[in-house]
Every structure is written in structure tokens, then in C-alpha cells.
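Contributing: when you submit paired examples, paste them exactly as shown. First protein:
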Amino acid sequence: MLKNYLKIAYRNLLKQKFYALINILGLAVGMASALFITLYVLDELRYDAFHEHADRMYRVRHKFVAGEREFDMEDVAPAFVQGVHEMIPKIEKSIRMEYPNPYIYKKGDEILEEQVTIRSDPNFFSFFGFRLLAGDPETLLSAPHSIVLTQKVADAYFGLPEHHDYSKHPALGKALTSEGEAFTVTGIAENPPGHSHLDFDIIMSNISAERVEQLHDYWLPAGFLAYVVLQEGIHPESLKSDFLAMEKKFEWPVMQQRLAVPLATLEAQQDELGHYLLPITDIHLVSEGNMKYVYILSVIGMFMLLIACINYMNLATARSTRRAKEVGIRKALGTTRKQLVGQFMSESILMALLSMLLALGLTEILHRPFSSLSGKELSLNILQEPWWILILLFLTLFIGIIAGLYPSFYLSVFKPVEVLKGKIIQSSKSRFRNGLVVFQFCISAILIICVILVYQQLLYMQSKDVGFNKENVLLIPNAYSLKNKEVFRQTLLQNVKIEEVSFSSTAPGDHFDAFTTYHTLGSETKHQAKWLGTDAAFFDVFDLQLLEGKNIKADTLGMKEVLLNESAARQLGVQQVTGSTIETFWGEKYNVAGIVEDFNFEHLRLDIMPLLIIQNTGGWPYYVSVRIKSGNIQQTLSQIETIWWKHNQDAPFTYSFLDRKFNELFQKEQRLGVIGATFTGITIFIACIGLLGLVAYIAEQRTKEIGIRKVLGASVKGVVILLSGSFMRLILLAFFLAIPLAYWLMQQWLSDFAYRISVEAWPFLLAVVSLLLIILLTVSFQSVKAALANPVDSLRNE
């Protein structure tokens, strides 16, 4: 029976080549797109699942209050892990580390590229599931000044081991120096997998680290991360009371003393504040905000498959009159309804199988462009992951059944007597088919509107006046490695193409993680602000706007000075801010030289925070910011590099341009826009080829009618309007349904941005016009072909 079903299905495919091609192409493109989206989503969902105790592993987050603000951050106190050991036995093991940071290393006199380094407690490799190629995970970081290199770093700078035996790698036991300290290589780790939120090149022991020792008993956030593994059966919510007891004993006294947080405030908000746990598998998706994009792409993938299935259902029901006599004869000869359903379902599954084979070919051909588009290395490795075969078979059967379900049951209910007499009622079928067309293009319209608004928001962020001049500013990292910063500055300023040079702890578009409290002398109220240390030239390099007062002075004689942004000045709540003296968290006093206009130094998702621009020419500045003149940029860069190497033998010369670096903040939005536009185009393509087949079949059905109309004087234009008018009405209905849905979706997405566009009417009108033009071209292709046909031929072939 099955063999007979497949034979008939094959014959029908050959008989209706055009419609078979449209169905197979539509399903194949939809399947290939869905496979790419599935690969992307599965890679996102795999983040950090490779750790041995991933189901019980958590990162600690911390809610606390300082000044007028509440903070929810991953930053914990250096003493937190010690407190956990003393007071919370429900935690099986824990680890403390500093944030990943770029370090400069030297191998003898050779300067290595910047290496992302994590300074960690010694149990890093016994805690996490990162694989070691050489070294004992229990002891390799237990000695002071020990480091573990990743495979790529070890191979790049020490060569490959003989016979690929990493236990005998030439890097082991060798020394690398950083910031004047020598570190011994005690192990080699496999490169961290791409689906880990922790990315590193080197792991460094924090034992004997000066900063760690100084902050050993410190109970305020200070740039440390903490992870814990709970004992079997322990729910993270059950630790709330344990954390609260620890906070009352260690943290609350420090918050009252150093941050001036009243005890009454801490007691009143004890249920909302404090430490809590985030599953490690949620860090990438939830904490870093990627889950929303997983949902968006998953929905797009499902709709693409659904639209491809709708194409098949539309064409199958539209062509029902051609199969009606077949059904009638079969029923008259004794074929049961169950057998007819089996016949039509086998045709649908065969179509899905052919489409899947074509989709696999498209996936293999296009996986590199999609990997580039998504920023991930994605491919369908069926040989290495054979479970994909089961998924593909299930997907093929599922799509075949979904696509063929309605046509099979619809065709199988025809009554043989009525069919053989030529009586087939079409109205209910047409309404259903029209509903599917409306659904298809409603989804297409929503996608077009959303893509236009995403790009509009992206352009708004890139072109918004952020309050400083981004153009022609060069950022050179590792400024702390310069032996004499002032001589370097003056040497650069001798170049006529260089206008100003500044040293600072950070720069707009980079990390602003440094917080402090501040208050005017004599005031008990402490306020919270971000800060950066810099010099007087910072004001001119970034072309800030002074609202009152003056710039900080160039020298450091007497009391140091500070510039406040508007938000910081407003927060003080005093009439005369300029000229007053403020005191920071560290007890240092600064004279307020002036107030600058608020500027967006972080992502436009965020409101502008209060900011202190502190005069601090000493210390460890990270950036040299250089304002250069337009014209012959490459020559200027070459001259700056020459000067750098004359004054610096400890760090490589690397640079970035501020405008590009600032635009990199919007990479996630850019990627969403590109991926969204790509799959929107594919969705419209699938819908349109289905519409093309539908119009072609309707034109074929109405060949005699068109011939009669032309004989009676109908014009080509009239025939085109006749065939396309009903579809245009359906598309307009789809838009009326799409507009409120698209508006609601985009309002939800835009709510994440502190600075966002207002949703206007023109994106909706543009989407309407563009989709109508695409559909008009699609429909007109077949309509004009039918209208230009010789009516004599259509009437002769009756």
C-alpha cells in the first residue's frame, strides 16, 4: 500500500512540475532558515552547560543601597567568600575572582599581545569545567605568581609540543613578566569553549596579589566576582536568611560607617536588598540580555516554517478541483476515507522529504555567510552529532503532516456522486484559503515594520548628539606603561596634526565601573556617582560643554579639582556648587572647578549617571586620548606609533577610534537588524512564491472566463485588476491586523532604551507601500501573462 501511495505521489509531482517546484522551493527555504535559527538558538541555550555541576552552580549578585540609588550588580565584596565558608554550610564550594582584564606580558624582551587574564582563587579548574591539557587542577594555581596559559597562547609564543603531548609543552616552567612581576607557567588549558560567558587567555593565581591581600577583610563591592555550588537538594531561595545573617554581621556595619546608610533603611529594605543567586546557565541569556533575541529568532523561525506550510495548504486546496474526479472515482471503486488521507499525506511527506534534502544542501552552502551574520561558527555536523538525524526526520514528518493535514481531510470528504456530476462547493474552502493568505502577509508586514523601526532606532543612536565630539579622537590603551607620560604628551603635541593629548582612567564608550560616594563638606547626605581620573586636557580632547565655572587646572599644586556633570551637580541639591568642596568615599577632598553639560558616556540604553571628572594625573591611567586633525590619518598614525615605541618598551601599540568604539556599543542591535532584515526578506520571498503559484492556478482555472472577457473587449489592465484586486484587498486587511501587533511589539523592545525614537506613522506607511509593490509585481507577473494570452486558444481548448 505504501509503495502504491509513493508511486502515485511521484506521478503527481511529475505531472504538476511548476506547482511541485514552488512547494519544494518554499518548504526548502523555510526549512533551511529554520535550521539556521535552530543552530543559533541551541548554541545560545548551551552556554555554560558543560560544567560538571552546572545545575547547582550560581553566580552571586548583590543588591545594595548607596546614596539615593539602589544597585543590582554582580560585584561582591572581596571578603564574601570567606564569610560564606564561615557561616553558610549549605554551599558546597565557592570561588572568588577579579573581572577579566587585558594584561600585557613579556617573554624576555618580546612584548606579547594583550591577553585577557582572570586573577582567581587557586581552585579555578577544580570548580569550573574548563578542560586542562597539562597540570593538576588541585595544585597548579596554589603557588604565588603561577599562571595557566590557554592552548592558543602557549602554542603561539612557545611552539607546539612534540607529538602533541601537552604534558611536555615547552611553555611549562617558563616565565612571563607583567608589570614588573615574573609569573611561572604551571599548566596548559584547552581554549575556553565559545558557549561560555567566561572568556580568557590566561588564568593567574591571586595568592600574594597585593590588591587581594589589602582587601581581604573588605566588605563593600570592589571589582570581584563570586560563584558557588550548592549542596544537593538545596534551593537557592532557602539561602536568603543565611545571606541576611552574614550581611547583618559583616556588611551592614560597613555600609553605615562608610556609605552613611541608616540602619533603619537597611532593616526596612532587608527583604529587597542583599545577595542572591543567578544560575550560571542564565548568565548569558538573562543577565547579559540575550534571551529576548533568542525568543525573537525562535518566533521568526516558527513563522517561516508555518508560512511555508501554508503555501502548500493553499495550493493543495486551490487545486482540489483537479483531484476531485480522482477522489470520486476512487470512492466509487471502494477506497475508504482513511486510505485517501494516507494517499494525500504520503504526497505531503514526500514533498517535505525532498524539501529537507534541498534544505540540507542550502544549509551546507550558506553556513559560512550565516556564521558571519550571527557572529558564531555554526554548522550542521551530522557525522559528529548523529542525533541530528532523528531531529531532521522528526522535523520532516512534522512539517509533512502539518502541511498535508487540512488538504488531506478536505479532499477525502468529497462525495463521489456530487463530484462526478461536477458539483463542488468552493466557498468555505476559499474563505479558509483567504484566511491563510491574510495570516502569511500579516506576519510579513509585522516583520517589515519591526525591521524598519529597529534600523530607525539604530540610526538614531548612531547619530544622536551625545554631548561630546566623537570625531577624530584616537584612543591608545595601556597608557600606564609609558615611562614618562608628560614627555610623551609634549612630543606628540609637536606634531602639527595633533591638537590635544589627555590621559584618563577610562573614556566614553568604554567601561565606567568605578563608583564613589561624595558629599559637600558639612553635609551628612552622601550621594552616589561614577568617576574617572584624568587631566585638564580631557575637556578639550572630548570637546565637553562647560555650563559654569572653569576647567580643572593643568597642575596638581594645592587642592585637586573636579568637574561635575549636570546630574551630579543637581544631586547635591545646593545653590552654589561651583567653588564648593566635596569629599569622596576615600576621604579625599576636591574643589569643584565647574559643571559640564550631561553627556552620554555609556550605552544609550542607560540614563546618564552622575559623573565626577577628577583631576588625577598620577596613578595608572589606561587611555591616551589624542585629538587629531582630518586628512592623511594613516601618516599621523604612523608618526604616533614611532613616538610610542621611543617612549615605551613594555606594551604594544594598539589603538581604536572613538566614534567606531562608541558605535560598537550597539553591536547587538546592529546584528538584530541585519538578521531581522535577512529573515524578513526570506519570509516575504516564501510568501510571494506561494502567492505566485496561487495566482497562476487561479488564472489557469479562469482561462475560459478571461478569453470571453477579452473577446467582449476587456483590456489587459482590466484583466490584471480582475485577477489581482482580490489579493490586494487581502493584503490591506493583513496590514490592518499587523499594525497594532507591530506597534505593541516595538514598544516592548524600545522600552529597554533610555533614549529612543518615538514611533511615527511613516514606518508603517513605508512597510505598506513596499510590501504592496512586491506583491503587485508578483501577482502582475502571472496576471499580465494570462491577460496577454490569445483568447482564441483558451476558447478552442474547452
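Second protein:
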Amino acid sequence: MEHVPPPAEELARLDRELAELDARRAQLLTRRAWLLAALRPPTPTAAPGWNPSAWGAPPSGRPGAPAQPWGYVPKQPSAPRSAQNVLLTLGGLLLAVAAVAFTLVSWGSMGIGGRSAVLAAVTLGALIAPAVLLRRGLAATAEALAALALVLTLLDVYAVHAVAAPDTDGLGFTAVASAVLAVLWTAYGLALGKLRLPLPAAVVLAQWPLLFWAWAAGAPALVVGWALLATAVLDGVIARWGKGPGVRVTACVGGSAMGFSALMVGLALSTTASGPLGAAAPGALLLAAAAAALAGAWRAPKGFARTGGVVAGLAAVAAVGGVPAAALSDGWRVLAYLLCGLALTGVVRAGLPRDAARGVLAASGAVVAGALVWALPSLAAVLLGPVTLLSDVWAGSPEGFRSALGSTLPWSELAAAPVVLALVAGLLGSAYRWWPSVVRIAAPLGAREETPKPDAASSAAGTPGAAWTAPPGAGAPWYTVAGAGARRRPSGAALRGAAGAGALALGWGALLLAGVVLDVPYAVAVAGETALVGGLLALAVRGAGSGRGASAVPVTALVGAVSGAVSVGLLSLASEGAAYAVFGALTVLFAGAAVRVGAEVPRAVFAVASVVWGTVLTGFAGRSLDLDPHEAAPLVLLVPALTVLLGARLRRNPVALPVELTGALGALVAVGLAVSDAPFLALVLALCGVLAAGAAVRPERRPVAGYLAAALFVLATWVRLAASEVSFPEAYTLPVSVPALVVGVLRRRGDPEASSWTAYGPGLAATLLPSLAVAWTDADWLRPLLLGVAALVITLLGARHRLQALLVLGGVVLALDGLHELAPYVAQVAGALPRWLPPALAGLLLLVVGATYEQRLRDARRLKDALGRMR
């Protein structure tokens, strides 16, 4: 059933779409105007500031023509007088250093009158000089002297305290002095409005009076927090109505620092309070900070408004939640803060500005995320804790759920964890269930920002404000620029799916944690987790078959079912009966899910998981029968045999391949179990070869399974021979060579044009070459004789049937075998001959070959051609 939105919502949507169409039309018309101007013939001379190599289009000189594109480079203003500024800065710095040195070093050599006269005269002159310089247009020099005057006023304060009032409290004197200097420099900056330094300096000086006053009075930390907050509020006022960007930036920085410090003081006092009454006073400070941040965010720009909303929301949660949290134990305090954070969602009806309200909602999300971060480690401990049971399988059923986990977590302090997860899951589930109502309530905060209308210059020049976009289906052109409103946001369906997935995952985790917190009996915990896996499987099957595709909820259910199955499987390892019951139930549940589900990917996952659980069951059977690992290996092959039969039943179904591959992994496990005993290993390898041969009967599996079956059979034969202590190589090579030669004969019958190397080469080489290698180290005569006879027969067959592989392999082996037999006699003859005879014979041979070189070359070519004509 299609959802029909309310009239108000539909009207707002239509207005937004019409506004977007108008903005798009304006962009295209502006672009069209520039293209028309660019297609006109270029002017002979380039205008000033035009870079003809930028894009190859000169600017238009017509009145009212659109501004030039990116290639237009406006004339840059003249460089600032950097040398003058450096000199003035260095001069002011040196004067300030001299003043400090005079005050600290030469001050004691003058009387009180001289001291006062010198400092007063220099300070007064430094304050008056900027006014005179400004009237003459020397602004940089005036700034340098103003900086010197600022340093001198600070030195005046130090001098007054050191001489006139040495017994006064330093902190209190500093508080009064900073207040006085802030007022004086404010008045001075307002009087000389062209100077940029005095007013920011006054803002910096205004940061300290209240703080130093509270510090000097020995005020408690709460009063210090109020002093910091009052200073931050003053900075906010200055940032809102201050004169000039320097003043506002300085006030923003100072207000941020002071406000953050006030929040930290209030938060520390609230979290360490001994009771609700003790947390009320810090809560008032935090509430005042929240009100100040919200007031500052009311008319602030977008980024500052959202930041202010976040700060206000977090401060309000800390203020209100800290009072009940002080009366609760450590394990339940997070629940008080979570409830306050969830209450912030009421801001959607509070009438706040949109950006500030979004910031408050972000603060609510941060509080919820923090509560989940606190609770999720305990859930991870529940899921992964049963891993400790792998070291002691079937040791006996533990008394309770906690003892089965082997975890050292303080579960009594985590009692609120399942409540936190359940509360958040309930809210997410409610949002998933009544999503249209949620969208309608949050519509004012989710309104799309309007794309800023580009001016003529930015539109024609292709600046980011123009927000050029390509037509549908077209590639992005060179002028494509993403505008401010082009950001993609997740769709409503995606957000709803995320809410449903979060509700499902957190609800499942809440049930698991509840069992641990209550420390239910072991049997109840195992049964409960298995039932949860069944419920998740039902949700996954229902969601995957509803036609909505791979939405978030069924995918989350699938992942949770697999994760829960692994966890409960590990948990069941403590008891033999529980292990059989759990893995049997898991096998049936996942197999049933694989049969019922309609989508291919979930079906493959469920089928693979069912095969894995069944393989584990066969391993349990071997342990129950008190079989050694190698004796239990044939039992493990039962599941791979079933997967082969199931694959033959499924044929080309997409699920068949994952199931068969999982069965092959089970066969690999069986081979690993049998490695310790050679006869059993040979048996297991042979059985695996039978299974592979059974799979090779199917044409789609034959290219892989056929070779695998042959390799497994050969390997089984070799292992069996090795276990029987058979050492001669022919016993290992002939079982390979004979089938290979049979296959070669069949190949040549079906394809007479096939090469003899492809048909017979592997089979002959598998036996001849290892036998030749052993014959060269064999002192007996029987093996070389038999090898020579076989090589001779092969060579004659190759010559008779014109088969190149037989002729070459047989001839080479025959020659090397004969050389091996003649080698002792050749060595005896060589030892009896004079030493000069071998070089003479070699020289004679070279002379004969050289004299008949052309004939030998023709003979070699004829031999090569003859071999080439063979198959």
C-alpha cells in the first residue's frame, strides 16, 4: 500500500522541488549566456588582467556582459610595504625590551619622583603619539607605538605594585589592575577607532578580573566556575556586538576557553557530589552554561549555532542527570544521564532555530552513543566469553551463566547495561514502527537548505556558488562544480532501515545481558540463546522473502543469527548433552532457513552454516566413542559425502557451490585429524578421492574435481606405500604412469592430431626420470638393465609409430643409462692410457668435424626435420 503524505508535507515538498527547478533554470541560462559570448570572435588585443593561455577565450567588452570565466585573472593590488612593517615591528619590540630592562634593572637607582616622572612621561607619550600619527596617515607606525604603549601600561602596573603597594595581595591587585586596564584600553580603542590592537587587547585583559578575584578570595571551586562562566558570557556579548573582526575573534576564543573551563568545573563537582543536594549547585552552574550557550546559538551563523546547541544539550544533560545520578550506585548512574539525553529530543517542538535545534539533537545522540559505548563491552564479553571453554571441552555443566563465561567483569556494577540497551532498542523500534509520524514531527528540522543564488560573476566564472551540474546520463564536464546544496543525504527508507536494524541488534544484546546480570542457570542460558538464534533466523527469512531486497533489518538478523550461533555453540561445549542438543538444533534451524528463504545470498549463508554445524556434530560423535583423532577422521567425512550428494541434487543451483566447498573444507579437517597415523591418512585420502570422483561425474565439476580425484588417489597410494616401508621409486611412479598413459591412448584415439608430448610425455617422464636418477646411484645391475630394456622398447615404439615424445625420452634415458653402465670401464681405460692421448683424440675429433662441418650441419637439419614431422 503506497503511503500518501499529508497535504502540508506534500505542499512543502512541491515548493522545494519548484525552487530547485528555478535555481537550475537560472544556472543553465547563465551558462548559455557565457557560451554565446565565448563563441564570438576574439578581440585583437587582450584586456588588462586577461590570461589568454588560461582557457583560450578572451573577455567580453560589451556592457552588461556576464563576468569572465576562470581564465580571467584580475589585476592584483600592489604588494604591502612588508619592509616597513618589519622595521616598525622590530623597532617597537626593541623599545619594549628597553622599557622592561629599565623597569627591572635601573628602577632602583632613581628616586620615587624620578621613577614616576619617567614612566608617566614615556607612557603618556606612547599613548598620545598614535593619535598624531593617525592624523598624518602613518597607521603602521601608530600600531607599533600602540603595542609599545600596551607593554608600558603593564610595566606601570608592575611598578605600582612593587613600589607603591608592595604589601597588597598579588592576585587581588592583578584582578583590579586587569579590570582597570581593560576599561582604559577599551576607551582608548574606541577613541582611536582606526587602531586594530587596543580593543582586542582589552578583550584579553577582561578575561582575568573575575578569575583572579575568586582565586584571591579563596573562593570554592563552584564560585570559580561561576566566575569563569560570567567571563564567558561577557565574551559572548562582545562576540555578538563587538566592533571589528579582531575583537570578535578574540572574544570567541576567550569565551570558548572560559566556557569550557566552567563546564569542566561544574561537571567535576556534579560527578563527585555526595548526594542530590550536593549535585544541585553544580547543576545550576551547568544549567546556566547551557542557557548561555543556547542564547549565543540563537542568532549565530550555522556552524556556531550547531556548536552552541551541542554544548547546551550536553550541559543540560550533565546538570539535570547529575542530581539523580548522585543518589544512585555506580552501575545505574549512566541510566539517569541517558534518560536526560533522550528527553532532549523534545527540542523538535520547542521552537528553537533550526541549526540550534540540530545541535541539541546531536548532543542527544552523543549521550545515547556514550551510554551504548559503556554497555557494549559487556555484550562483547558475553559473546566471546565462552571461548575459554575450548581448553576444557565437556568438563561439566557450570552452575550459572556467569561461571560459563569465565569473565572477570564486575557484573554487579553493570546491572544497568541491559536496561540501557533495551531502552534505546525500544525507542529505535518505535521510530521504525511509526516512521511516518517521526518524519512529520522532524520535518521542520530536516528542511533542505536552499542553494545560494549565484551572482553574475560567480555564475559565469564557474565558481562554487554556481553549482554547475551535468545533464542526466552525461559525463561530468570540465566546468562541473558541486554547490552547497548538492550534498547527498540518506533517504528516508535507509534511515528507517537503520533504526530497525539498531533496534533488533540492541534488543538481542539486551536479552543476552539480562541473562548474565540475573545469572540464570546454565541450561536456561543455553536454551535461551538457541531460541534467540531461531527468532533471528525467522526474521531473516521473513525479511529476505518480503521482496524488499537486502534491507538493513534482515541483514542484521542474519549477522546476529550467525554470531549468536557461534556464541551458543561455544557455550554448549561445557556439557556433552548440551553440545549435541545445541549443534543438532543449529543444524536443523539453519537447514530449514536455507530451504525457506527466497534470496540467494542468505540461502547460501544458511546452507554453509548448517554444513559447518553438522561437521562439528560428527566430530562430537568420534569423541563420544572414545576414538583417537585419526580414528574419528572417517566419521567427519560423512558430512562432505552428504554435500556431494546434495550438490548432485541441486545441480546448477547457486547454493550448490558454496555447500560443496564447505564440505571440502570438512574433508580437509578430516585429513588434518588423520595426519598422525599414516594408514588412516591413506584411507582418508582414498575416501576423499572417491568423493571427488563422485563430484567429477557432473560435467560442471569435472574440470576441477577430476584432477583432484586423481591427485588424491595417487597421494593415498604413496602414503600407503610409505606406511608399508616401500622404498623403490617404481612403486610410487608406476601407479601414476599407467593411468596417465591410458588417458593418453584414449586422447590420441579421440584426437589423432594431438601431440605425443601432451598424450604420453607426463606418463613416461613420471617413471623414467625418477628411475634414471635412482639408477645412477645404484650399484646393482638389475635396475639399470630393466631401465635400459624399457627405454629401448619405448625408443623403438617411437621410431615405429613416429612419436616424438617416445623417441626423445626413450633415447635420452637409454643413452644416459648406457653411459652409466660404461662409466667404470671408461674410467679404467682412461687410467691405462697415456695422458697425452685424450687431448690428441679430442683434437682429431675436432679436425674431422671441421672438415665435414657442412655435411654434419645438413645431417642435423635432416634430423631436426624428421623429429619435427613426428607427433
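If you have annotations for the second protein, write them as plain sentences, like these:
Residues 536 and 816 are 71 Å apart (CA to CA).
The mean pLDDT is 78.
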